[in-house]
């Protein structure tokens, strides 16, 4: 059972995760009176961040359905409840039973949504593999760069989905336009996630023409610094191409294709596949990193560039 301490200023993400845990409890045990203080607390915390124009998913949509029922009771002129959620603590009997029925009626839809998420991740993986393979076969060398974009610890509590979306929209435009240090960028991909501790963040894959640029750590750093500029200092980044991180991977027996790879080097394609897998494959924790809310119904959580060429310089892989 999840309860948010009164003394801390929690982010939108942390509130949504707490709501999800509460609904999971409801699916498992129903709604009992000992849970009502948690329910009241979450209703109070969700109210100021709730936006009727946003799109909320799976467990959060269940909570909103329960909230609408509670709000009907709260604002019913025939009831003498004060204009707050204190009356929730007194709910019992048929009221709790009705809330349980509503929640359970949506359980199958939640499971369907989560299954659909898995299927979409599989489609994303296939799409990205095909895209990167075309680049790998076309260019003699590629510089593979990975950088994760997020927010500083102090900024996270102030970052909601709207601000994050606007920040990353600017970053995507920089990628598409190949501004400054993106000039020799031949391909890219990104995956948006929402972690309980990390909050909103992006896994970014940059693919440069290896015949024109070197030093992946430099380009990862420049991308991270651009993110910090866009977010006016609220953003943070992690450079996966830095030697320290790559050495940690090697010591752990994990070799992936960060840095320079070539179609002429046996084994480089497999190393590159490992990079792709991290972005898209359904890992054990991947489903926990999905977005719970979107500013637009069709807001993408995965994207990549386009590869168009009239003449391929490499050979197709089988």
From TrEMBL:
InterPro entries: YagK_YfjJ_C
Superkingdom, natural source: Bacteria
Pfam families the UniProt entry points to: YagK_YfjJ_C (PF11726)
Domain YagK/YfjJ C-terminal: 136-290
Name listed for the protein in its UniProt record: YagK/YfjJ C-terminal domain-containing protein
Organism: Acinetobacter vivianii
């Amino acid at each position: 059972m999840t309860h948010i301490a009164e003394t801390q200023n929690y982010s939108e993400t942390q509130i949504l995760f707490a709501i999800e845990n509460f609904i999971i409890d409801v699916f498992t045990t129903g709604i009992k009176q000992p849970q009502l203080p948690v329910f009241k607390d979450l209703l109070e915390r969700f109210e100021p961040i709730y936006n009727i124009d946003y799109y909320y998913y799976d467990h959060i949509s269940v909570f909103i359905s329960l909230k609408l029922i509670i709000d009907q009771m709260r604002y019913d002129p025939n009831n003498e409840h004060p204009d707050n959620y204190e009356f929730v603590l007194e709910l019992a009997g048929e009221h709790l039973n009705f809330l349980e029925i509503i929640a359970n009626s949506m359980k199958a839809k939640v499971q369907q949504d989560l299954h659909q998420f898995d299927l979409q991740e599989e489609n994303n993986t296939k799409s990205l593999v095909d895209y990167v393979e075309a680049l790998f076969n076309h260019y003699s060398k590629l510089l593979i760069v990975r950088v994760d974009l997020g927010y500083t610890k102090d900024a996270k509590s102030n970052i909601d989905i709207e601000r994050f979306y606007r920040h990353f929209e600017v970053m995507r435009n920089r990628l598409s336009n190949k501004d400054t240090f993106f000039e020799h960028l031949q391909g890219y991909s990104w995956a948006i996630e929402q972690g309980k501790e990390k909050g909103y963040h992006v896994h970014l894959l940059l693919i440069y023409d290896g015949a024109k640029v070197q030093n992946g750590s430099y380009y990862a750093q420049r991308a991270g610094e651009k993110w910090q500029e866009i977010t006016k200092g609220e953003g943070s980044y992690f450079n996966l191409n830095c030697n320290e991180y790559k050495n940690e991977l090697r010591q752990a027996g994990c070799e992936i294709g960060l840095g320079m790879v070539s179609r002429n080097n046996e084994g480089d394609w497999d190393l590159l596949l490992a990079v792709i897998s991290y972005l898209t494959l359904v890992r054990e924790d991947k489903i926990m990193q999905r977005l719970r809310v979107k500013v637009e119904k069709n807001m993408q959580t995965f994207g990549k560039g386009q590869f168009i060429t009239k003449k391929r310089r490499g050979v197709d892989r089988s």
